[in-house]
Design brief:
By secondary structure, the protein is α/β, with parallel strands linked by helices. The protein has nine helices and 15 strands. It has a five-stranded mixed sheet, sandwiched between helices. A three-stranded parallel sheet has the order 5-1-6. A three-stranded antiparallel sheet has the order 2-3-4, covered by helices on one side.
Length: about 260
Amino acid sequence: MYKKIIYIFLFMFMSLFLCGCNNYKGEPGTLNAVLKRKKLIVGVRTDAKPFGFIGEDGYNYGFDVDLGSELALYLVNKYENAVEYVPVTAQNRIAYLNSGKVDCLIATMSITENRSKIMDFSIPYYKSGQAVMIPHWSKVTTLKELNGQRVIIVYGSTSEINIRNELPDSTIMGYKNYDDAVKALKDGLAVALIADDSVLLDYVYNDKYFKLLPGRYSVEPYAIAFRKGKDTESLRQYTNFFLKEYARTGKLTRLQQKWGLY
């Protein structure tokens, strides 16, 4: 009970502080910039359903998109135009972040040692893992059986690094987005596609041509990414508080359930 009271007090204090800081100036990617423009600019994927995709109406949808909207509402205390989504890919998302085109990335970005050297991360909001997708008729049962064969990855993903270590004798075929990668697998250009299970599950659910191998060969915690440096520290700290409160109240679990991730 005491801990709950502390959370409520901190939440009220931070909300009041945010409301009173709208006259601050700041560089893109900083808390001051977000408050001044009264809008959070978020880099999101458009090819990673159910995390980020474009609906038939042309709008952004997905788990990451909804999470970005909730974060924006918390930061600027505003219910309309509180967030702007900028489409990013696995290849350009880090460049977009570091150049100031977005304030943060909520874009299936997993925490790795190398990435932590060039950007800062929030606490994790989802745990994914690398999985192997194969045609339903394939006799492959383990990752090791793919060594020496053609396998597909998406450029810029952690699977690109991992798979070269796991399958040193395989021919790696890279694609710029998941849709093209999946099409290549279905066309028989390779024997398997390796990527985050959270992304591949959607393709398996929607197309019985595919199946996933059992098990995962890595743990990939997804987090919100910020430009590295002290100037973005305040935005990261407030984001961490938001994520903790969002999880504590059960809202994060409900959002995962909405998108079939729980």
